[in-house]
Here is the input.
Amino acid sequence: MLVNVTTLLTEARAGKYAIGAFNTVNLETTRAIIEAAQELSSPVIIQMTEKTFDYAGGRAIFHLVKNIAEFYANDIPVGIHLDHGKSFEAVERAMEIGFTSVMYDGSRKEYADNLMTTKRIVEIAHKQGIVVQAELGNVPYLGEMQMDTIDWEKHMTDPEQAAEFVQETGIDTLAVAIGNAHGFFRERPEPDYERLAAIAKRVSLPLVLHGASDWHNGRVTEVIGRGISCFNVDTALRLAFIGGLREALHAEEETDLRKVMTMAKDHTKAAVKEKILAFGSAHKA
Ligand code: G3H
Ligand code: 13P
Ligand code: ZN
Here is the structure.
């Protein structure tokens, strides 16, 4: 069943567990996420980016996910979310399509610009009952830079600034940068746990950690204890999907595309389950 994303995350924060926000690009990934969550009785968030709108069509992918959540997943709470809307127009378009939860990612803009655009989006969104996530500090992308060249300190969320930003903009959830990054890293530096605790002390809304594909259980537990209520996961699902496809294509000459895609779906589902178990949201539906 479709639910409000902030309600999901507020409950998670109170219950000391976290919700997985998984990126989808197609039918198979969506079914993998839903089936994994159903089998573990877990609430779940399914999210899409602008690039996926370009690939699949914004309305097409939104309604695919919405229909699956409404008609095939009445037993679990499902939130649908726009991930990394990079411009006012992109977020506006998602709201027009029907998203009830959106992220405006102005993290690469100057602070004043990020604050002003986020505030403007919140005003419009809240009038329609839509909730807004924003990012402060900046969560880097592995694809764009070498791990050893990242100046982590420069990217991190400032706790005092976070308090001001939340107060000024009225956002519902905040994506933080505490040494996390997008992509699969061979060796990540230790996250700045103290910084996270300092942010959580000043900001009472649910905090979101992007780039959780390769986070091991110990780190997951540490940050949930310090205020993280949501983990964004994309790369781990892409890798699982491609692994499943490879296996299917190498196995034997299979000409039924449904069988090939089912193999990819099942690999992805296993990856989603692993994450749900790590986040502690199993049996919270
Ligand atoms: O955080 C970003 C996600 O990994 C989505 O990437 O823009 O290629 O869909 P994308
Ligand atoms: P990963 O691809 O590192 O899992 O990051 C996902 C993400 O943050 C989506 O917003
Ligand atoms: Zn992200």
User: Anything to note?
Assistant: The pocket of glyceraldehyde-3-phosphate (ligand 1) is lined by residues 23, 49, 51-52, 84, 182, 210, 234 (CB under 6 Å). The two ends are 10 Å apart (CA to CA). DSSP finds twelve helices and eight strands in the chain. The first helix runs from residue 5 to 15.
